[in-house]
Design brief:
The complex is a heterodimer of chains A (391) and B (262). By secondary structure, chain A is of the alpha/beta class. Chain A has three domains: 11-78, Orthogonal Bundle (Arc Repressor Mutant, subunit A), CATH 1.10.10.10; 84-197 and 371-383, 2-Layer Sandwich (Nucleotidyltransferase, domain 5); 210-365, ATPase, nucleotide binding domain (Nucleotidyltransferase, domain 5, 2-Layer Sandwich), CATH 3.30.420. In chain A, 41% of the residues lie in helices and 20% in strands. Chain B has a single domain (18-252), classed as P-loop containing nucleotide triphosphate hydrolases (Rossmann fold, 3-Layer(aba) Sandwich). In chain B, strand 4 (72-77) and strand 5 form a beta hairpin. The chains are: A alpha/beta (391), B alpha/beta (262). The A-B interface holds A 25, 28-29, 32, 36, 39-40, 68-69, 93, 110-118, 122, 126, 129-130, 133-134, 137, 281-285, 287-288, 291-292, 295, 297 and B 9, 12-13, 44, 145, 147-148, 150-152, 154-155, 187-189, 191-193, 195-196, 199, 203, 216, 218-221, 223, 238-241, 243.
């Protein structure tokens, strides 16, 4: 950050570079005083003041007065006249949250580790408080929040907004998540399955931009799927479309959380992965397995490769019935890159119809773990009738 | 950058725990602060100490940190028995502690606070540049959200201060970090940051001991939960497999109803 651009160039290009650097700092910290800006960018207070004045005139930033250590200070934030969009992704072990302006640039982002089988009241309370705190940190108020998109790691019935299959997200079954959050945040809330949001995120902002038929595979603590047909999200009856994790892979297998036997999740859910390593590697978390695999641990690599193959078979079968042009793999397991993607591609290639002509492509999510957040912003924007300006 | 223990991954399976306290007792006059307490912490593991007020959590943390010498029992670090109980000896043994009172100097900047009392000399002067580079590295390792290592601590939020206090412990390349109530009196956004830092420390291969009252925070980041009650061990739980009720029962001494549904 401290290094200057290679050539000094003209006065105006220097000014441009400085202003870019200053904007980066404002974006990074959401709201920051001019004094802190000078420290963060290494620019002189006078330069910061001049650039802020220019950016203020062009409407890129907003300023307001605040007090820092007893002195008056000028707080600088990115201008977001059209209001704020919020995405909340409640995962199995992490809650991720993003606040964006209407051009879908993240203004703030947080991730909060969650306990196993976290409880709806604590988690939703923390989500609401977190939104309020972060919005406040941006120098805005909750009244500027246009809408919130929420992703849950379970199928959500589009008719009721509630989880439609009990047991998958224990204790959350009859919780009216949208109502609970709406009461606290005071903005309209859209609740979706997280893999559906991942699909929308990649469709609007990621690797699948412009695609019309897409299968998004979210390989996380469990496997989920989002289906895009003819450019639109296909949720199916009770939101069950794309529930890849509950496809049958082992007729003699153990009983899944959902109650049926031999689901894909019983073979490659996080619990199954760490269980298969317990004997030789002791007790690990999913993050440990991914870390060790990337450090070259052959056992952990094997587990991820096998998971990729198992997911691949189900994804290929699903592709045969849906006919997507593209399969995008997101979620934590996708962070393992080729380890999980190659066996998945292999499985798809073995379904001959898929491999002919313009073959079905398998790619990692371009937005990584942010795909679901972008999808959340997208549904929030739709809910708020903000015209999406996908860049 | 901290090139902390790349070898820790192999230590995962090592038989000797990084830290082993056995039969620790500590008396303050008539007060039995700790009675025959055992504790083990492995590398790459987060162990939470929970219990009511005066259950002995902080005393145990202070014994590990070298503030108190135990009256009975032994403390081993990496199989080596600790004989000198001073904070300096503990630091030399790779144990770093962040107490509730963070002891930061308001008027100094982040770098100066991180290196407070452990400054890097450069021919009789301070090597400001090296310290700032290292400070940036520590903050990056922790995914810190601090504008610049030159920001005075007076300008930081409670969560950012906690982060500076944690970053300070990284200077001595520790193997064990003890955090006393790191999330008390923090907002949710700040708690999110501190919990993320703790996950980061674990990924760096450190053994982390965390004392907290908040079971949600603890169950989110801890691998193991050790309950203390009236200065004694009162249960050890695998965080991922234990319900709140069982932990609360152990903390309060309620008879445990074994109604666990599979």
């Amino acid at each position: 950050m401290a290094t200057m651009r290679g050539t000094s160039g003209s006065q105006s290009s220097l000014r441009e570079a400085n202003s870019e650097r200053l904007l980066d700092a404002v974006r990074q910290f959401g709201s920051i005083t001019q004094v802190e800006l000078a420290q963060a960018t290494g620019l002189s207070p006078a330069t910061v003041s001049t650039i802020v004045k220019q950016l203020l005139e062009t409407g890129v930033v907003e300023t307001r007065h605040t007090i820092r250590s007893g002195r008056r200070a000028q707080l600088v934030t990115i201008a977001h006249r059209a209001g704020l969009l919020v995405a909340v992704h409640v995962g199995e072990r992490t809650m991720r949250l993003a606040i964006a302006d209407s051009s879908f640039d993240f203004l703030e982002q947080r991730s909060l580790p969650l306990p196993v089988d976290h409880r709806h009241d604590t988690t939703l309370d923390r989500a609401a408080v977190l939104v309020a705190e972060l919005v406040d940190g941006l120098g805005s108020s909750l009244s500027e929040v246009l809408a919130v998109g929420v992703g849950l790691p379970a199928p959500v019935d589009p008719a009721t907004g509630r989880i439609s299959v009990p047991g998958i997200l224990r204790g959350w079954e009859d919780i009216p998540v949208a109502e609970v959050l709406e009461r606290r945040i005071g903005a309209p809330i859209a609740v979706h399955n997280d893999a559906n949001l991942g699909a929308l995120g990649e469709l609007r902002f990621g690797a699948a931009r412009g695609a019309s038929d897409l299968l998004y595979v979210r390989a996380s603590y469990g496997v989920g799927g989002g289906v895009i047909v003819a450019g639109a999200l296909h949720q199916g009856h009770r939101g069950l479309a794309g529930e890849l994790g509950h496809a049958l892979v082992d007729a003699q297998g153990p009983i899944c959380r959902c109650g049926s036997r031999g689901c894909l999740n019983t073979v490659c859910g996080a619990q199954a992965l760490v269980d298969s390593l317990r004997h030789s590697r002791g007790s690990l978390t999913l993050t440990d397995v991914l870390d060790l695999a990337s450090d070259g641990d052959p056992g952990c690599q094997q587990v991820i490769i096998d998971a990729g193959a198992a997911i691949g078979t189900v994804a290929a079968n699903t592709a045969v019935s849906l006919g997507p042009r593209l399969i995008i793999v997101g979620g934590e397991l996708a962070q393992a890159g080729p380890l999980v993607l190659e066996p998945l591609r292999d499985a798809v290639r073995r379904r001959v119809p898929l491999a002919q002509g313009t073959a079905l492509e398998v790619q990692a999510a371009q937005l990584g773990l942010d795909a679901e957040l972008y999808g959340g912003l997208a549904v929030a924007a739709d809910l708020a009738h903000v015209t999406a300006r996908a860049v | 950058m901290v090139e902390t223990q790349q070898s820790n991954k192999e230590e995962l399976m090592a038989a000797t725990p990084l830290l082993r306290a056995r039969g620790i007792s500590k008396y303050f006059g008539a007060v039995q602060a700790l009675v025959d307490v055992d504790l083990e912490v492995d590398a790459h593991e987060v162990v939470a100490l929970v219990g009511d007020n005066a259950a002995g959590k902080s005393t145990l943390a202070r014994v590990i940190a070298g503030v108190h010498a135990p009256d009975e029992g032994t403390l081993e670090i990496d199989g080596e028995q600790v004989r000198t109980f001073t904070t300096r000896a503990a630091r030399a043994n790779g144990v770093a502690t962040v107490f509730q009172e963070l002891a930061l100097a308001e008027n100094l900047d982040v770098t100066a606070n991180i290196f407070l009392g452990q400054e890097l000399p450069d021919r009789g002067l301070l090597d400001e540049e090296a310290m700032e580079t290292l400070a940036r590295g520590y903050l990056k390792d922790l995914n810190a959200r601090i504008p610049s290592p030159r920001t005075p601590v007076a300008h930081l939020t409670a969560g950012q201060r906690q982060c500076v206090a944690i970053a300070r412990t990284l200077v001595g390349k520790p193997r064990i970090i003890v955090l006393d109530e790191p999330t008390s009196s923090l907002s949710v956004a700040q708690t999110a940051e501190v919990l993320t830092h703790i996950e980061q420390l674990r990924s760096m291969g450190l053994g982390v001991v965390i004392i907290s009252h908040n079971l949600t925070d603890i169950r989110a980041v801890a691998d193991r939960i050790e309950v203390l009650r009236h200065g004694r061990n009162n249960g050890s739980f695998i965080a991922a497999e234990t319900a709140y009720e069982d932990i609360i029962a152990a903390i309060t001494g309620a008879p445990r109803t074994s109604r666990r549904l599979a």
